[in-house]
Write a structure and sequence with these properties.
Strand content: 25-35%
CATH class: Mainly Beta
Radius of gyration: 15 Å
Helix content: 10-25%
Number of domains: 1
Shape: globular
Distance between the termini: 28 Å
CATH superfamily: GroES chaperonin
CATH topology: 10 Kd Chaperonin, Protein Cpn10, Chain O
């Protein structure tokens, strides 16, 4: 990903995180997490374009909604706006108003890759 496209991606991610809570009327229940998957890579590092039938399923996305507690009764440590990594076969794929989403369980998330993206960019990390 080039520096320009990476910056554009981060700006779009911030915009999505700000707008989604206002637009989406879906609510995650219990230990579920609603994720907007990132777009699949369409080009190799060498510059070759990949047809859709050979593109890998996306395993990274932005959290749009979270349930209130994990199955163990603990508070949810994953927050709206976090970028998470999950198994390519985890969760259920759904479409809401033409937008592809993924419903995951708390335990499906392997890594929280980025927290508070906006604060990282603006330099106001907690």
């Amino acid at each position: 990903m080039s520096k320009n496209s990476e910056q554009q991606f981060l700006e779009n991610l911030i915009k999505t995180c700000r707008e989604w809570p206002k637009q989406v009327v879906l609510e995650a229940v219990e230990d579920r997490i609603l994720v907007a998957p990132q777009e699949a890579e369409t080009q190799t590092k060498g510059g070759l374009f990949l047809p859709k039938d050979v593109q890998e399923p996306q395993t990274k996305g932005t959290v749009i909604r979270t349930g209130t507690r994990t199955l163990e009764g603990q508070e949810m440590d994953i927050k709206v706006g976090d970028v998470v990594v999950y198994s390519k076969y985890a969760g259920s794929d759904i479409t809401y108003e033409g937008i592809p989403l993924k419903v995951l369980r708390h335990s499906d998330v392997s890594i929280i890759e980025a927290r508070a993206i906006e604060s990282v960019i603006t330099g106001t990390e907690d």
